[in-house]
Write a structure and sequence with these properties.
By secondary structure, the chain is mainly α. The protein is built from 60 helices and 7 strands. About 60% of the residues lie in helices and about 0% in strands. α19 crosses α21, α20 packs antiparallel against α21 and α56 runs parallel beside α60. Keywords: Acetylation, Methyltransferase, RNA-binding, S-adenosyl-L-methionine, Transferase.
Length: about 1250
Amino acid sequence: KERDYTCVIQRKRSSGSSQGKLQEEGLTERDGLCRRRARYLLKRAVDLCGKPSLFWWSAEENETLLQFWETYILVMETLEGNQIHVIKPVLPKLNSLYEHAISGEKGCWLFHPSWHMCIYKRMFESENKTLTKEGILHFLELYETKHLPNSLGFSEFVIGPLMDALSESSLYSRTPGQLMGACPPLGMRLQNFLATYLMLLPEEEKGSFLLKFIQKMKSRHWCAVPILFLSMALACIPVCKVLGTDGLQALRDVLQCTMITHQILLRGAAQCYLLQTAMHLTDVVSFFFLLVIQIHQRENCFMPDWFEAKLVATMILLAADVDGKSNIEWIELEAFLNPLLDVLMKLGSNAYIPTLKTDKSLQLLLKLLQTCSLKCSNTQDDKVLSFIWKSLMTPVESILEFILRQLTTNELSTVGDLDRCDLYLALIPEIVNLCSQVSWKKLPTVKNFILSLTNASIRNFRETNCKELKLKEQIKKVISMASLTVVCEIMDRKPEAHLEALPSVDALKRFISFFQFNEVLKKPSYIEEKSRYVFCPVLCEETSSQGWGKIVARYVRDQWICLRFVLNTFPMLAQEEETSELSSSTVERSKKILQSALEALTILPSDQVLPVFDCMKVLVPKLLNSSESLCIEAFDLAWKIISSLSNTQLIFWSNLKAFVQFIFDTEVLAVAASAKGQAYAKIKKIIFKLIDLSATKTGVFNVVLSHCCRSWIFPAVDDRSALTNAFLNAGNYCELITEACVFGTVFRRDQSLTFFLLIFYSTNRDDHYVRVCAIKFLCLLDGSNTLHKMFMEDIVSKLLDKDEQVSRSRTRYYANSLQHRIKNRIWQTLLLLLPKLDQNFLCGTLDKVFQAGFGNNQASVKYFIEWIVILSLHKYPQFLSKFWDCFCYDEEKLKTSICTFLSVLSHFDIILQNTSEKKPVLKKALIVVLQWCFNHNFSVRLYALVALKKIWGMCRMLHVEEFEALTPVIESSLQQVENMHGTGNARRNWQRIQDHFFFATFHPLEDYSLEAIFYTLPRLSEVAEDEWISLCKFDRFTDIPLPPTFQWYQSRTELLDLKPSDWTQQDMGSNSVETDGQTEWTDVQKKIIPWKNSTPSLDLEMVFQDRAAKLGKSNSRLIVVASLIDKPTNLGGLCRTSEIFGASALVVGSLHYIQDKQFQHLSVSAEQWLPLVEVKPSQLVDYLQQKKTEGYTIIGVEQTAKSFDLTEYCFPEKSLLLLGNEHEGIPANLIHHLDVCVEIPQQGIIRSLNVHVSGALLIWEYTRQQVIKQKQK
């Protein structure tokens, strides 16, 4: 059997054997025992292959074979450790494996590549995800750079184990130091690999490989992140038309699979990449139309297929624009348009044109107009569009006449006709837009049409209210209301047409003002509908009964769209009219409408409540004082709708925007704040609810803050009083700005990956948007404006209170924790506002700043506090007395904060720039700093010496005579510091602190800029990268523009070019070398191969103890008896030690110990490979007597009067070690049964060793003596 296994080690190049496959499967088997046996057999086979008399071995390739297999076995053994620091130095040896495996002359494989795949498969299946990622990156880079010979096994490996490994989302995380928004390394490596690998494949294999690759993508449920990067890699393959219909079908299936992912932006990006793949890798002309038509196929439809009209419209535009020449012949384009124009010209006069022909013509017209509008908004930019639009102007009168007849007579009377109604109504705004683009000559025709349609719709509506409604009359009401809705929307969107001057608008206003809102329509009975669809009962059920709810919802929504137009155009509903109802107050009428709006919110679907929100925005400010409870009910109901939609991507954002415009309307906020009642409190609660929602749904706070900042500082009304009232809202709701200044979520690792990818693909949902918006809002404030001044002071006070609250909640906090980030953002904002604060306010505020400096702060927070203190003292030197008081506290309070104030003194030259009498201040500074130069704390002394060096340099420049006596002492001290010698860290730390950016490069005045505060300083102080706000974001987020005269913007180049460093970091030593930079390590960790001289068992299904007993490890005759030990940790350690040194058995008091987690943690599965015997303490006497009869010497590990020194005792081959209890040792009744006692010599004063350590020393000494005896034999 050994001969058979050995003969298959070097496989034939042309084919593989079943034995070789079995060997490879053993090397990658999930069971550790199988892998160990496979490695053992491989090692034995290689050892025997070195003897030419036994096996075939190519003499000329002997050295290559030996090097290959020795390296191969080393790599496979190292991978068993699962420790990346052990494995990473071995990875460069994989490159040498490929060099040995490939023949340079023939460019083919000397060793079958499946042996290499075994290594990568082991890495891919590792429990250590870091190792898995290293394996994937190494495999992708190797094939990209080495250009290995083609092999079918590689393709199978890529589609199998590699793609399985790529399904892990965590592998696509950013590397340390990689910028936010950059593609992760694995994503880039995957793109390069797939493009390179496909290029090297033979032409006939490319299509089948890609088909299998895409089919693998649809064969399992992929998370959003892996499917995104696999799609990106496919999209980056160079254009090659190798996929057929099967490939296109597989891509469609993957597109459908990506629909189930949760993040809509990642889903959209993946779908775009897959569509790009289809364009690059398939013959679009041959297959695309067939596939798309199959996807969009519709059945049982009253209307013709819209997709056909879209295709024809696109075809016309493409056919006309294909050459792009200036002198275009229009004959071909006219040939396309003439049949359509002929039908359209006859619509107004010929009532007998077939309905299907009419519908198709109008569908094509609508799609032509919509496509042209998307392509170009200016007719002068495109001659093709100009020609089409002018051609379509001809039949406008005929089309409008036809639409008017259809909408106002009884032509449309069934549920199925509502689709046709939608077609006619969609055409109206497109025709108005056409007239505005080409010529307003048709404006009278449009006005007459609007006038007739409005009057006829109102008349039809009133007629239907006077009779019992059947289905026909109800459809008529729906069509009339829909027609009025289109009229209102056209007047809203096209004010330049001046349609509001039409006489029918007054009639529309009166009609809507007194309309009974939320009127619902009676659901048609099955019998009634069946009588109308005698020839098609199936359509009756599907279109009328089941879809009636949507019809009613649309009918109610149209009512509120019309009311929105009336409220916006005529804010004061009709007053002073003759009827009794109109004589009631506007407030009462508004109250009734608001009550109807609340009812509408309960009956309308969530995607149709936008017009109701718009109406409530107008009504609530009028009713907040008189009907506050009703307005609060409106707030609650609106919030309930928004919160219920938080997981519905398609309609959430439009509803949220309408909700924000309603709740945070300038007038609503102003009225609520003036009363300071329940509505004011409710709005503030909603603010915090929205902020909480933002923590789980990125982008919510963005919408709120953008709207509020723009409305507060740039109100829509150009009125001085309006501007003042609008900014008053900022003060009344300053919590919004305060929370925005510190907003930002700390994501879990799985969440942070998704968040990073969202930034990679879209900046609109960037969490930085909130802070950038708030920062730019604060930058626009004017310190000379009283309202602005009061607002900024309020913000500063609230931020300082928040900082104090965070400090009280946790006195010590970790770097980049949520507490650290909040404090960092607070002090960034305070630093931003500092130049705009006046002296009186700053005088009281500075005390709180000093108190914050006494706290135990992280480095970045410390720098910002120091910066604020420096700038404050520079601007107002009279505050220096407050600063000197900070050095007067007892040492206990100053021990964690004195370095902060000493750092301020290191910039004392900046502080004294505005001081006329500098010498007295320098004297005080010198006295203060000298006392700290003798502090027992090394770091404090370093900071004090840096400050002393700065202050003494200033004294020398000013020639302060009072300090002449101190000159020799100070200068000799500074010189001694500069020239200090020694091998410790003192000299290095002195150099580092002087070279640190805050003392060497940073200038508090010249570096005061947005970029330095929010990007450069956080980066240099090693704050997490997602806290850095780059300057481009201030330019990109344009909702709040910075003033053109804005000065302090960019950071100095000297500071910007610096790299992060901390002067207190430990020296890494001169021998530390990065693994990645080395091609091959001279020596690596290598684990031993167990059972080197034994034969493995063939029975793999044995239970652990039986299997351990038959492993052939019974060469040792040592039995370790631990029945007296009762601590699982000691037993677990002894089990591991006994297994490693080959003890024949371990005796324990109970086998239940091996189930203990502490035991398993110490034993690391040794109980599976070592025979365990259960002997209870009460049975020990009998057990020892039995072993004596078998020839064993009973040895006690105990200190007794007659015990032997371990260094002098010679162990018999058959030895039994009895270990005592942790506390009592070996009981007296058992000592009499011992043959000998052995003790370990000690040098210290502690009485004894741990029992596990004692046992390990004796087991090793026994093993050492037996090994020496075997070597002597």
